[in-house]
Fold these 4 entries.
Entry 1:
Amino acid sequence: MSLRIVIGGVLVACAASTGCANVRCPAGTTCFENKRGRVSCKADCETNCGNIVPHRWRGLDDGSNCCNECTCRNGHMQCEEKACGDSCTDCSYDCTTKEIWSDKKKEWCCEHEMLGCPAVPLALGETCYQFCEDSSCDFIDKRDQCEKGECIAAPGIGFNSFSTCQLPAGATCYQFCEDGSCAPISEGEHCTAGTECKSDGTIGFNSHHTCQNVLAAGEVCYQFCEDGSCEPVDKRDECQKGTECKSDGSIGFNSRHTCQAI
C-alpha cells in the first residue's frame, strides 16, 4: 500500500506505507491514518479543562462538564449537552507531565503548584546564572530573562560560576532630555566590568551616555616611538576611574605612559 502524506490539504510526500511511524506533524496536530492508508495531520482539541486530545478521541469530558461524552473532530470538540449539576468537580491537573500545556493548565499549575508560571523579567544587577560545583549555592539558569542588558559573568573564584544582568559596552547608561524628548535613564552603576558610563559627545541641553571600554591600571594609554619601533597609542582619556595616564619613567626619544593610581 502506498502512503500519501497530507498537511494542510497539500500532498507533501508519497512513499511505501509505514503509517504514522515516520510522520512528524506540526505542533497542535496529530498524525491520523484512514482506512485507505491516507495519512494526514489533524488538529487536536481541548477538553473543558484545557487538556489536549487528538483527532478522533472520544470519551467523557472533564471538570464541570464531566458527565458529557465528547468527540474530537479535527480541532472541533463535539459534546453532549446534558446538565451535569453537582456530579462534577472543578478542573485539576497533573503538573508533572511534559506535554504542551494549555493556557488553563499553566494558570492552574502556577496557582496551585508554582509550576509553569510566566517568566518574570530580571532587573539590572539580579542574578541570571549561578552554578556551584561545591554545592554551596542553588542552581539558577535565567540567562534569557534579563529585562535590560545581557547576562554577563561576574568576577568569580574557583569552580563556581556567577552571572548578573549587566549593560554591555555601547548600551545607554545615562540619558536626560531637558526638552522632554526622551525617557530619563540613570543606570551607570550597571555597566559591565571594563567599561564606564561616559558621554558620547552630545551637545546642548540633552545628555546621552553609553557604557564605554576603559583601560585598567597598568595598561598602556599613550605611546610614541620616534624611531618607529612601536605602534602609536593615544588613549589618555580612557583610563578607568581612580587612575590617570602617567609616564612609566621611560627615557629618551620614545615615550610610554600607563594608567596609574591617582
Entry 2:
Amino acid sequence: MDIMQWLTNIKMEVAAKVAAFMLILLPSILGYQLRQFQVLDVEEQNMVSVPTAATPIHCAIACLEHGYCQSFSWTAGVQCRISECLNPNLLNNGHLSERLYVEKGLTANLLLARGKPASMSSTHPNFPARFAVDGIPLSHSMAHSKEDGEYQPWLRVDLESLKCIWAVKLVNRYIDCCWNRTANALITVALSEQEIFYESDKTGNFCGYHDGQLSRYNTTITCITAITGRFVQVLLNTKTILNLYEVEVHGV
C-alpha cells in the first residue's frame, strides 16, 4: 500500500468516527436522547421520506428542522425517514430490525383535554359536556346526555391546536349507578369539527373501538396508530345514555 492510499484510508476512518461522534453529540447538545428501538410496522404510516439526506447527520438536521418531527431513521442507500406522530409506548428495546432514533425532548401529556371546549349530541340540563374535562371524577360533575336516551350519543373535545394522539381514557360513572350504559365506544380524531362530524368513518380518522360494555371504572382505548388531529370524539354505537365522569386524551 502506497503512502497516498494509506492517508486516504486514515481520512476515511477519521471521517467515519467523527460522523459517529457527532451523531451522539448533536442530540446531547440539544437536549435530546439517543436510543435504539425496534419499530413496529404500524409506525410506517406516520413516516415522511427525506431523500436528500446523504448521512445520518443530514437526516438528524432534517428532523430538527421539521416542525413536527419526533424521531428519525437513516439507512444505507441515502434514505432518511422522519416520524411526525408516533406512540412512544409502542417502541420497544429489541434486537430485530433495529433503527437508530433520536427522540425529541417532548413530554407525553395524559391531560390534553383538561379544560378544553367540549360539546355533546344532547345535554342533560345539570350535566354539560365540560364536566367530562374538568378533572373531577364524581357523579355531581359528569357529562350526561338527555335522560330518555338516543342512538349513538357522542361527546367531542376541541384540543384547540394540532396534537399527536395515541389513546383516550374513559372514566365511567362508577359510584352510584348506570356504568353499564357505556358500551361500544368508538374513538375518532380529526383535523376539523366538520370532518369528524361528517366523515367519522374515514380510515384516517379511526383511533380505536371497544366492543361491548366498558369497565365499570375506567377503560383506555389505544389508537391502532397515533393520529395527528385537533378534535377527539367519543361515540357510543348503540341506543343509550352517555354518562362519563372524565374523558382523558393522551398524546403530545
Entry 3:
Amino acid sequence: EVKNEGEEVKEDGEEKEEQKKDTIHTNTNLLVDSLKFKKYSGFREDPYLFLDKDADAFTPIKEWYSVKEDFPFDNIFARSSENTKQRVLSVACRRIRDIIQNNEKRIKIINCGLKLFSYCKPSFSICPYRIVQAGIHYSAQFLGSRLYTVCRDDMERALSAAGVPKHTLTTPGLAEQLTGIPTMIIVFHLPTEGLRPEFWICIFSTENNIKSYVTEDEKNHFRLLLGMEPLITVREKRKLDAMEKYREKKRLENEGIREGGAVKEGEEEKDGAEACDEQGGMEGAEGDNQGLEGLEEDVDQGLEVKEEGVERTNGD
C-alpha cells in the first residue's frame, strides 16, 4: 500500500509538470501572436540577374578577347535587367547562384561575387567592357587573345610612373604583336620565377604607348614583388604637402613674433632716447637759468663796488 501511494504521488507530480509546460507554451504562443513585427524599411537592393550564354553583353567580350568555350557564362550576373545599366559583370560559383535564385524573396544579399568586366566609354576602349584587375587572376585563364607573356624588364617598364613606348619592349615579338592594337585594356602575364609567384596586370594600350592600369597601392605591391622601390602615392604626397605648409606657416609665425619683438625693442629704445633728450634739455635750461642768475649777481656786486669807490673819491 505504501508503495502504491508513492507511485500515485509521483504520477501526480509528473501531471502537474506537464500542465505547467503546456501553460508556458500556450502563453508564449499567445504573446508571439500579439506582437506586431515591423517591416524592413531599409534601402532596396538591386536584383541579381544571371545572364544567358547568348546575352548581348557577351558579344563584344567574345569578339575582342576570344573567350574560351569553357568560360562559366551561366555564373555571370549583373545587378540590373536593362542592358544599358549592366555596368559590372561578376562571377559567382554554382552553389551561390542556386542560393540566390532560390531565396530571392527570403533573404537580402548586399554584395557577392568577383568582378570580371566593367563597362567603359568608347573613347577609352573600343570594347565596351574592359577587364577588371580584381578578377584578372580568374578571367585570364579563359582569354584566347589580348593576353601576352612578358619578361621581367618589360613588366618593370609597365609598372613605371609614366607610360613607355611599345617599340622599347624587349620581349621577343611583343612589339610586333602590340602594333595595330586599338585603344583598349590588355593583359600582361609574368611567369613564376623562384619564390616569386606569377601575376597578371591590366595594361592600358594606346596607339604607341602602354601603361599599367591598376591602383597606386596595387602598383607598389607588384613593384615590391619585383624588388623595386615603391612610388609615392597621391595620398602620401598630399600628406607631405600638408606637412610642408604647416611648417611654413609655423616659420612665418615665428618670424612675425621675432620681428614684432625687435620693433617693440626699437620703439622702447627710441622712447628712452627721447626721454634722455628731454631730461638733458631740461637740465641744460636749468643750468642756463642758474648762469644768468649768477651773472646778474656779479653785475649787481660790481655796481655796488663802483658806487662805493665814487663816494670815497668825492670825500677825499
Entry 4:
Amino acid sequence: CFLKALDPDYSDMSLNEIVKEIVDIGDVFTVSFKKMYSHSGGGIFINRKTNSRILTQQQIDSMDFTIMSITTADYGNGFMSYSGLTGDGIVEIMSGMALCLNEAVVARRILEVCYVGSMLHQRFNLPIISGGHALYIAADRILPCVETAHCPAEYLNAIMMKALRIRGCGLGNLVYGGRHVSGLGEVEYSKRLPMDSLRLAVPREVYEQEYLLQALSTLGDAYQKGLFEHLSGGLTPLDYVDNGFYHFGAKYHLNEEDEFNDVVSRMRG
C-alpha cells in the first residue's frame, strides 16, 4: 500500500501485481503469519525453483529438497503434517493471504495503526513511528539513562509486559546493531542504529483502535510524567549471538530489580 500510495510508478497497479514484482526480484523470501488476518502464527520460506540470479540449480534443488523434507512429517498413522499445520490451518493461511492483498482491508489497517500512533504522539509527545502493521517506539529516547549496552528496547518491553501485559519485540541495536565485545571487554556496535526500536505489532483483526489507544495511553502518561527519565538499570543479554535471531529465544539478567519493580508498581498504580 505504501508503494501504491507514494510511488507514481505503482499507483495503477494492484497489490497482487506489486507483490508478484517484489517476489520476482529475490531468490528466496519469507512471510510471517503472526501479523495476518486469520491465522494465529507460523510462517513460510519460499525459494525460486529455476533461473536463479544468484544460486546454482544444484543449490536450488538442494534447498528445495531440504525444505520439503523438514516441513513435511509422517505421524506414523498414515496422516501427513506440514510443519504441524492441520488442513484447517492451511485454509486459514490461504484466506489470510487473500485478505493481505485486499486493498480495502490493508488500507483500513494502516489507517488504524497511523491513528493510534498519531494520537499517542499528540497527547503525550511519545516518540513513536507508525508503520503498516506495527508501532515503533524509540526506547532509547524514553529511557535516556539506559546505556545502549543494557538494551533500552528490551528493557522497556520487559516493563510493559510486567505492568501492562503488552508484549513487543526489540528490533534495534541488540538485533541489528552489530553488537560485539571488544578485546578490552567493552560492548561495541559496528552498525549502531539511530533509534533503538521497540516494535508493537498489531496482529490480524483482533484489536480495535480505541482499545489500542486506551492500553498504550498508560505508557504515554507515564512517559509524560517523567516516570522513565532516570531509569538506568536495563538488561544484560546472556549467551548473546549476533545472528539476527537472538531475540526469538533471548535470556537476560535484570540489572536493577528494585528499580524495575518500582516502575512497574507505579505504572499499575
